[in-house]
Amino acid sequence: MKAILCTRYDSFDGLRIKEVKKPSIKENELLIRIMASTVASGDSVVRRASNPFVKLVFGLSKPRNPILGTDLAGIVEAVGGKVATFKVGDRVVASTGMKFGGHAEYIALDQTVAIAKIPEEQAFKDAVTLPFGGNAGLHYLNKMKKGSGKKLLIYGASGAVGSSTVQLAKIYGFHVTAVCSARNMDLVRSLGADIVRDYTSADWKEELGCFDHIFDAVGKTDKKQWKNHLNTNGTFYTIAKGFVKESAPNLDLLLSLAQKKQLKPVIDKVYSMDQIVDAYKLVESGRKRGNVVLDFQ
């Protein structure tokens, strides 16, 4: 099978498409033919390895698992003898977390990881956008005090995490102020934000007011920078801190919301496997909107 390998850190030349052995499965595993994946911020963090801690965790000279990609959507091609929940032909979406493996034509996954069935009418490229931003949005929103009219500010509202969190927050009843660049304001309004602010404007914090919760969806600020904009007992959260655990129930919920048109997939661009360097460059430009998708069909 073909796979995209990260053969060394911090070099686009280190991204190679190679033929590798197709995985075999154990009795409790599924073999999935991957139709779509994403290039997410987690992939970029590992590829660049600008933080020395990355090399300590994932490998000193290159990733121990050189096939990156945390999310995938595809078709179950084979199942082990102890797999009861899935069958051959099922359309599924899955999140592997920091175990990666999604940037390939096939993957073997244990049936207990975050896997969910995709409705027939939902495209693979749409379904694969849900796990990363959706899981993160649910994780942080579930930490917050909910209630009609609770005021939430989302900083970095147009990225994969931010665009999902804006939509989920509105479903939960929050009054949402979303912060993004001017070019993305119309997009974020279309996702349901009540107020949208352009962070590139010199006076964007004037008359901003105070909030019950502030969520930095891109991990570029800290609580001190928001001290004048939090209500008494207000809380600050950042994607840069905390561990987001993937789960099948979360995926089921996200897919259900998408099927009901309450959660819209946000895709900046779709690339082929051969365009992997361009995909990473867009992610690392800091200017992507929503998700960057890889189409393996």
UniProtKB/TrEMBL annotation:
Gene3D superfamilies: Medium-chain alcohol dehydrogenases, catalytic domain (3.90.180.10), NAD(P)-binding Rossmann-like Domain (3.40.50.720)
Domain Enoyl reductase (ER), residue spans: 10-294
Domain of life: Bacteria
Alphabetized GO MF terms: oxidoreductase activity
Name of the featured protein: Enoyl reductase (ER) domain-containing protein
UniProt source species: Candidatus Enterococcus dunnyi
